[in-house]
Design brief:
single chain, 9 helices, 8 strands
Length: 274
């Protein structure tokens, strides 16, 4: 079969045990067990290049006839068609899935823009709609949007946050430490992705807020993206999962798109306030 693949043509061996080029190791581990003597192999082609092999053997020394070789080549052609059909089907499925995701994201973006337009001076419904759509599209358990207020970060919107964690957040100010996501974004990072919060330094060092997320909210995987205005960090959007399952690059990019919308909404509200 290797010969048919390498030579890109049928390999017909009337008796493998008398063929001087037949691999001794194959005789030892395969032929001695299967007991075949005559063997025929034909390559499977795609675009003129071998991509596989079809082989068949006989336990008796009985060479294959020309019509039988042609028949096996026909089966090889059919195998190539089946493989190509599967490849095309998977390609179409992937394309359709990507188109569906893109349409869903565009629809969500448009809906958030509608909320911004309908309540330009009231940020609460904008942030709530944004988190609702972002968490659904990113397959997150819950989400939080923080807004900067001087040296602190206040909770501006919550979506799906477990009650014990929500209660904790309502009575604590966000004071970023250097190991936290906000601290790192203040240092210049545009997003922070924790695959497992329970293994992060902030949690291990006993940061109260980080411990609350893990122990009260059941958080494991977390990603936060920065809201920036003229390069300055003005807030963050965080998405949380209660299992260890990293976010994809597409999901992080989607969150960054929502972050950009949040900055636009904040600037609109500021301008309307005069």
């Amino acid at each position: 079969m290797g010969r048919a693949f390498v030579d890109a043509q049928p390999a017909h061996l009337p008796d493998v045990l008398t063929d001087s080029d037949y691999d001794p190791r194959t005789i030892e581990v395969l032929q001695s067990v299967a007991g075949y003597r005559s063997f025929l192999a034909v390559p499977i082609f795609r675009g003129g290049t071998p991509i596989g092999v079809v082989g068949c053997g006989r336990c008796a020394i009985k060479p294959f006839a020309a019509i039988q070789i042609a028949l096996l080549e026909t089966f090889a052609d059919q195998a190539a068609i089946a493989l190509e059909n599967v490849r095309l089907f998977n390609e179409i499925e992937t394309r359709n899935r990507d188109l569906g995701e893109a349409l869903e994201q565009q629809t969500a973006t448009a809906e958030v823009l509608q909320v911004i337009n309908s309540s330009p001076s009231d940020l609460a419904p904008v942030f709530e709609a944004m988190l609702d759509k972002a968490m659904r599209l990113c397959e997150a358990a819950f989400g939080i949007l923080l807004i900067r207020d001087g040296s602190h970060f206040q909770t501006a919107a919550l979506h799906g946050v477990p009650p014990p964690l929500a209660e904790f957040l309502s009575r604590t100010l966000r004071q970023p430490g250097k190991h936290t996501s906000v601290g790192r974004m203040l240092g210049g990072e545009d997003f922070v992705h924790f695959e497992d919060m329970a293994k992060e330094p902030a949690y291990q060092l006993g940061d109260p807020r980080q411990r609350a997320f893990v122990e009260l909210g059941g958080t494991r995987t977390y990603v936060a993206v920065a809201l920036r205005k003229d390069g300055e960090l003005v807030g963050t959007i965080g998405a949380y999962r209660q299992e260890v399952r990293p976010f994809t690059d597409k999901q992080i990019a989607l969150l960054q798109n929502f972050a950009a919308q949040a900055v636009i909404a904040m600037e609109n509200a500021r301008l309307l306030r005069g």
